[in-house]
Amino acid sequence: MTSDQGCEGEMPPLKNLQVVDLSRVLAGPYCAQLLADMGADVIKIESPSGDENRLWGERDEDGISCNFASVNRGKRSLTLNLKHEAASEILHPLVRQADVVVQSFLPSTAAKLGVDAATLRAVNPDIIHCSISGYGERGELFDRPGYDLMMQAFSGVMSITGHEDDGPVRAGTSFIDMTTGLNAYSGILTALIARSKGAGGASVRVSLLETAVSLLGYNAVAWLQTGVLPRREGSGVWHLVPYQAFMCSDQFILAGATNDVAWRRFCTALGCDEYALDERFVTNDMRLANRAVLVPLLEERFRAHPVQHWIDHFEANGIAVSPVNTLNQFLTHPQVIANEMVIEARKEDGRATKVLGMPFKVSNGPMADVLAAPKLSAHTDAVLRERLGMDDRRIGELRARGVF
Known about the structure:
By secondary structure, this protein is an alpha/beta fold. It folds into 2 domains: 18-216 and 341-400, Crotonobetainyl-coa:carnitine coa-transferase, domain 1 (Rossmann fold, 3-Layer(aba) Sandwich), CATH 3.40.50; 243-323, formyl-coa transferase, domain 3 (2-Layer Sandwich), CATH 3.30.1540.10. Helices cover 39% and strands 13% of the residues. The chain contains 17 helices and 11 strands. The chain has helices spanning 27-37, 66-69, 88-97, 107-113, 117-123, 148-154, 175-196, 208-226, 260-270, 273-277, 284-289, 291-302, 307-316, 327-331, 334-338, 380-388, 392-400, and strands at 18-21, 41-46, 75-79, 100-103, 128-133, 202-207, 243-247, 252-256, 321-323, 342-346, 352-356. The chain has a 6-stranded parallel β-sheet with strand order 3-2-1-4-5-6, with helices on both faces. Helix 2 (66-69) links the parallel strand 2 and strand 3. The chain starts with 17 loop residues before the first strand and ends with a helix.
């Protein structure tokens, strides 16, 4: 790679870092994928039936779930029945060699399976052990299963999404899961830096709940400090007017004024300077009070011309504006391609498949070679030979006993 993501010939920054990924679904696997992207050797340990995410969503030409492929590239797949009495004969040696373990079982299940922090840090005191839970590891709900959509409901995100007169609305992507993965990645790197300074191993705890709280941001702080709850405003925001989607003659556009100076430029772009002088609309507080009057006036203006007409006018007046794209329009946009956010991963037979790029770029840290998500148990035998020194006879014995 010869971009801001590093120069060809440079070593990925996490090369030689050994990771055991015991997580499932989205958050944990995404964290481990980021580690793999930066060069870590990630062994994904799955049950013999596989991560349930392998069964969800669309399938590629090889039958691999696109849901699974989105968060598991660059890993090696090893199957292991953690409930088997001999599972520790494989897991513990891998943990002794590892720098990082990521797991996302319920706290009680993790303890029962022996993959909790106390157990695995006893096996390897220098390990960075990352636990990802739904509701955090304290409190009465600590052992409740957690999924992105459940947390959107529990956290109040659904109460501030959609239109005021509609029922609960899910955000269109699993943003709590994915951000939890990013938080876990950040926590692990923080612990690794501390370890490099002599702090030793560590436990990193991350949860969907804590991620959701942090993502509520100014909405949560506004309630904590003033008692004011945000209102649902569809495509807009409750504290700024105008700032929402408007229908043009051909498609929707997102336009807005984030301050009163921008409001005057907004009116010029829209060809309605008289609105900027109207005493009902001069300040944002006035526009908020008269939202029901102002928005229909603006909607009528936007409907008169196609989206590109308005984009040209708004950009000429220094106002941020965007078409409301479909997913396919966005992923094929030259700006997305220029920033290397759609890249190719290599399958085991050498064929290429498209995946998403890294959400950050490091000038002195190139990505590792991008390998597509593995088939279930594709590397079990190879890992057992390479990492644990097992021969075919020993592997056959363990397989016959149902260990993997």
